[in-house]
Amino acid sequence: MKQARNWSVLLGAGFLMATSAVGPGFLTQTTVFTQALGASFGFVILASILIDLGVQLTIWRVIAVSEMRAQDIANAVLPGLGGFISFLIVLGGLAFNIGNVGGAGLGLQVLFGIPVEVGAAISAALTIAIFLVKEAGKAMDRFAQFMGLLMILIIVYVVFTSEPPVGEALVRTFAPTKLDVMAIVTLVGGTVGGYITFAGGHRLLDAGVKSPAALPQVMTSAVSGITVASIIRVLLFLASLGVVSQGLTIAADNPPASVFQLAAGNFGYKLFGVVMFAAAVTSVIGSAYTSVSFMKSFHPSISRHENRLIIAFISISTLIFITIGKPVSLLILAGALNGFILPITLATMLVAAYRKKVVGEYRHPLWLAVVGVLVVLVMTWMSAQVFVQQLSSLFS
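-> structure tokens emitted (396 positions)
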């Protein structure tokens, strides 16, 4: 019985990370890049998966062996750094959550024809209900697993109806004719950027899966999460490629919806509504849960009232979306700031991996350290460019 519960926790943490990554932006990015790069986008996906694995395995391992949350690890490396990272995570999480709530509302609009704002309110009420139950952690795990599997099954159907050139996709995955470094960085940021990097690791910590002895379980959970997110990415790529290879035009205003509709007609459009709702509502849960987990170090009472704070976080995101709609300039800037979170936190974790006061006798694999350093350098450069662009547009 205990082993079954353990597997449920490991899969739940993996699916929480995966479904947090698979949000409205994830669906749009995959469709748009497939349209631009064609079958060669397979190479971008392969590169991003390998980078994601390197990033996630480092961060999850350090969290597990240190038995501390990311912000506490950061404070152990440099006093005050944890507070700074928590600020970035919470602000960025709020910015993304407004978009996630809107995406869930859009999904329900496609399915039932109701206004997006009404759909957003219904979606928020559903996620809040999960944190009102006695065992909210277990409910969150099961919900993430169900929604993740539902998305996979639907996209598999759309892949079959779009009839993609699988052979060409396989060849171009290893021998691309087009290459877009920005696409790789964008996918990496969307899959392991911001709060997403810590969703699963913090969930395992809360569930008691920690210590060096638990590393095999932690690695199983991390790999399962990356695998699920990667499967959804690959399937969505193939569905989009099938539409593109037929010479059909994907609508610019809503690319993923257009792919589903072109591949499977009006029924496909309704399926898009289900996928958009599932992707967005699980991202709402992941963002709220992980953002609040970064507040726990500020005061002991936060842990005691964790679920209430998560509910408040979801409610604030929903109210901002309903009353303002698109995020204001401050939240746009927060999104740009969010780009710095991955290189800052990953660099911090790499330093912590070699601090005995943090990880004890743990020895971090050299290949993970090398991959981590490369990701930090590339993401820092790209994030700086994006941030300068956002600042110039904000004050122009």
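The chain has 18 helices and no strands.
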